[in-house]
Amino acid sequence: MNTTEDVKNEQDFSVKLQNAKRSLVVVHFWAPWAEQCKQMNDVLDELAKENANVVFIKVEAEEIPEVSQKCEIEAVPTFVFFKNQQTIGRLNGANVPELRNMIKQHIDTVAPPSKESADPNEILNNRLKSLINSAPCMLFMKGDRTQPKCGFSRQMISILNEHNGKYSTFDILQDDQVRQGLKVYSEWPTFPQLYANGELIGGLDIVKDMVKDNELKDILPKDETKSVEDRIREILSKDRVILFMKGEPSGPRCGFSRQIVDILNKTGVQYAHFDILSDEDIRQGLKKFSDWPTYPQLYVSGELIGGLDVVKEMQEAGELKDAL
Predict the structure, then answer these.
(1) In terms of Cα–Cα distance, which of 309, 270, 304 is closest to 288?
(2) Cα torsion 41, 46, 52, 53: sign
(3) pLDDT tens profile 64-80
C-alpha cells in the first residue's frame, strides 16, 4: 500500500525526488503547530492509498529551512508538485477539493525535460502544453472554481457552471511562470483563458459572445454527474431574485420577456437572469421542476412567483415590490 514519506534533511529530499523520476511527487510543507496542517496530513495519507502511482512527501517546513527556502515556502500548509525534479504546480492553503483536482490534473502531465537537456523556454512551453492538454476543457484563472479571486474569473465560472460544463482549473496566482508564459504562448494578454481540446477558445468576452450565439454548448464537455434538477437548484441558490427568460434584460428575445423586464426594472430591485435559449436542458427541465409550462418564470428565494400574468397582477395590486 502506498504511504506518505517524511523527509529527514535536504539530502533526503533530493534523493526522494531523484528516485521518483518521472512520477508525480506531491510535497506537503507543514508545521506541527498548525491545526490545518495536521488535518491535511491525514488527507495526504488517504490520497496516498487512492493514488498508488503518486509519491507523497511531508516536509516539516521550519525543521528543514534549506528545502523550504529553495521551494519558496512562505506559509503552511503549502503543496508543491514535482515531476523529473522540476516544479510543475503549487497550492497554498488547506483546500482538499482543489488538491484532489490538481493531483488528477498533473498525474498524466508529461514530465518536463531535465534542466540539462533543454533551454528554459522549451521547458516552459512543454509544461504549458501539458497543462493545456491535461483536461478536455481547461480554464486558467485567478483562484479556483470554489474561490475565484477576480470578477472576470467569477463570471467565467458562473457561465461554465450554468452550462453544466465539465472542466478543470489552474490558479495562475500560484505560479507566476505559468501566468507570464501563457500570455506569450497563447498570444493572449489577459485572464481568464479557456481552452478546449488543447485549443484556445478565448477570454470572458469571447465566451459571453458564444453564449449569445448559442455556440458554447457545442464545444463544452458536459458534466454528466449533475442532474438537470441539481443544476436548476444550483442556479436558484446563487441569487435571491432570478428571472428565467428568453434572451437577457438588455436584449429580450420575446415580447413576454420584454414586458416582465420592463416591470422588474421599474421596481428598482436587483435581479439575476438566465437565458433559457442558451441551454435546452434547463429550458425543458425547469418546466417539469416548477410545474409551469411557459416562460418567463420569476423566482424569489428559490420559490416560483409565476409568469408574466402573475407578475402583472401583483404589480397592479401593489404587492410586487414587497414580494421581491
Answers:
(1) 304
(2) negative
(3) 988 988 888 877 889 99
